[in-house]
Structure formats: C-alpha cells, structure tokens
Amino acid sequence: MVFGHEYFLGWPGSWSGSQPVPADSVVFIGIAALAVACARAMPGLAISLIWLSTLLQVNNRFDILLSQLATLYVVGMAARFGSRMWVALSGLSIILGSALGTLYMIRVDSWLVGPVIRAVEYNQWPSNNQMIAVFIATATMMTLPWLLGLMIRLFAGKQSAELYTAQAREEADNALELARLRAENAALARDVHDVVGHSLAVIIAQADAIRFIPDSDVAKIRETTGTIADAARRSLGEVRHVLSQTAESGTPDRGRVSSPALKTAQLGLLPPRTSDVSAILDNVRATGYQVTEETLGEPVPLPAGLLPVIRRIIQEMLANALHHGTETTPIYVRHYWGTTSYTLSVTNYFEVSAPNPRSGTGLGGMRERLASVAGTLSIDTDEGVGDAPSIFTIAATFPLNNEWTGR
C-alpha cells in the first residue's frame, strides 16, 4: 500500500488510477522504505536517507506522498535507539525539515496545505499567519514521535540502570560473602594452629622428657604420660569447640562481614578465666622447663574481652619457646603494667645454628589477634657471643583504653 497508493487509489496525488506513478516518486518511496528498514539498527543512516529522499523530492517537485510517514518513524527510532549525537541531530532535523517542508508545500500547493489554510480562514486569522500555521502543524506532527521515542528511551534507561544497580548489588553481596568465607577459613586455620601448636609443643616436650626418666621411676613415667594425655584431650576439646563455633555461625547480615567465627578469631574460644595463663604456665613447667614469672607495675583488672586474646597470645609465645628454645635454659614471662597499656613478654634462649629458628605462621596469627584489639607486637633478638645461646624476646602490648576497660 505504501509503494503503490498513488497508482492504485489515485490519492492524494494528482494522478488517476489509469496514470502510472512517476519514476522519481517510485525511487522516493524505495528510499523511504530502506530508511524504515534500517531505522532501529542504524538510525544515523536512516536520517541520512530521509534527507536524501527530501532533496530528491525538492529537485523533482512532486507532491507530498503517504510514504513520507516513514520520516515520523525514523525520527522516533533515532530518539529511541540512536546515540546522543543522532538524538540531537534528529531533533535539529525536525526544525530544519519543518521549515523546508512548509516552504515547499506552499510553493507546490500541496494537498496538505489546503486543510490548514482553510482552518486559518475559517477562524478569521490574518492571512500572513498561514505560513506560521503550516509550520506549526508540520513541526508538531514530526516532534510528537521524536518525543515519544525519547520518553521510551528514558524509561528504558531507568529500567536498565535499576537492573545494573541490582546486578552490582548482587555482585557486591557475593564478594562480601566470599570475603566472609575466606575470613572464616583464615580464622579457623589460625584457631586450630594456636590450639594444636601449643598442645603439640607441650606433648613433644613431655614425650622427649620421658627418655631421661629412669626405668625404675614408674610413678614419674605415669605422671608424665598422664600429662601428655591431658594435653591431648584439651587440644581435642578445643579443636571440637572451634569446629562447632564455625558450624553454628549461621548467615551473617547482608553487606557486613561478621560472624561468630570472626569474633572467635578476635576474642578467643573458651570462656575467659583469670587462671588460664597460670594453667598454661604450669603445663609448660610440667614438661621439665623452668618458667619464671615476673610482674612490674600495679596490676589492674583486665576486661573479659581481652582475656581470651591474652590466652591465645601466651599459648603461641610459649609454643614458639618450646619449639625453638633450648631445654636447659629458662623461659622468662614478664607482665608490665602501665597506666594506659599492659605488655606481656616471653624471653627464651635458642641456638643460632638451629635450622629456620623462627618460621611458621604463629607470628602472623598473633599480629592479627592483636590488631583486633588495637594491640601491637614487637620482637627483639640478641645474638649470643661465642658459644652462648642467643636470646629471643617477643612482647605483646594491649591498650587499656575506655573501650576495653569500661573506664
């Protein structure tokens, strides 16, 4: 119908049904159809084709055809799918095309001008406003599809932005969940290292001590093996406690990396007891090591939140001393009490010739625990002279601020 309306209907052009459609108008209709075909995928090309057909029409001076409705579709598609440049150019084309079309239709006395002029005369408007009325009518007809396409574009853009926002939020949640799982895995590994490392160090030291007990001293052998069994049971119990805490951690709040496992890593595993440190020192003494304890300053009650951290720190410190130190030298444990901080230090002797005297993950785990309570870790090594063993000192400082002490 678009291609042959003039030929089949003889309307609205001046040709009758028996007259063939001029060749120029057929080319014009073909260009318009091509513009419609590529308007969505290539709106810039479609606009260029519309202008080409317009120049062809002006050059051959034939009247307005119904196939020029393609222009309305093209400007709408340019506003909907075109780039920002083509949206602007299509809007500018509406203004230029409306002005050019007004002049052209009046010059060729188009069939579309008649209704507009008759409406102006019927309403007794001044005759010099006839051209303005034709321009307004033409611009309005061309602007409406452009505005419609722009509105659909904005609405679709809003939906796309909401979709992208939802996807970004989902990706962020997935990243937080992955970070949470990795943090829990790291916390679990650190807890198991602290528990098993200290217990195995005690067990190894006591097992080695059995070799030096006379075979006739059955009571001492039984006491030592009993101590080994107790250390193993405590280690097994604490490992089970770590695993149960991880299994019961549940799902954390969305958007926040927090779980009982992470709190476990920061605050320890067992209920805080003031006798924990003394019990740990007694276990080490039972292995045959000499452990001395010294307190400097005026002790103050420690908050419950710090006690589990201190317990894990002293466990790792003593495990390092048992693993890397010498059996014949004492281990010194000192407590330094200040007005704003508490420092716990362990000093032991070790042989420089020992392979990898300070390797492993214990130091990193202690630093992470101290960081969770705003504490710091310091290490000092004093090389021995001649055959004298070297001295290794590690100290953990805990701030006694309002957050932790409640003062």
Which regions contain 5 or more consecutive residues with pLDDT less than 50?
13-19, 250-274
Radius of gyration: 45 Å
Shape: rod-shaped
Helical fraction equals 55-70%
Largest sheet: 5 strands, mixed
Q: Looking across the biggest beta sheet, what order are the strands in?
A: 1-2-3-5-4
Tell me the span between the first and last alpha carbons.
Answer: 90 Å
β-strand number? 5
Number of helices: 13
Mean pLDDT: 75
Order of helices and strands: HHHHHHHHHHEHEEHEEH
Decide which structural class fits the backbone.
Answer: alpha+beta
| Percent strand | 5-15%
Can you walk me through this structure?
This protein has helices at 5-9, 23-38, 43-60, 69-81, 84-107, 113-122, 130-210, 218-247, 260-267, 276-286, 307-324, 362-372, 402-405; strands at residues 291-296, 331-337, 341-350, 376-382, 390-399. It is α+β, with helices and mostly antiparallel strands and 407 residues long. The protein has a five-stranded mixed beta sheet with strand order 1-2-3-5-4, with helices on one face. Strand 4 (376-382) and strand 5 (390-399) form a beta hairpin.
How would the blueprint of this fold be written?
Elements: H1 5-9, H2 23-38, H3 43-60, H4 69-81, H5 84-107, H6 113-122, H7 130-210, H8 218-247, H9 260-267, H10 276-286, E1 291-296, H11 307-324, E2 331-337, E3 341-350, H12 362-372, E4 376-382, E5 390-399, H13 402-405
Parallel strand pairs: 1-2
Antiparallel strand pairs: 2-3, 3-5, 4-5
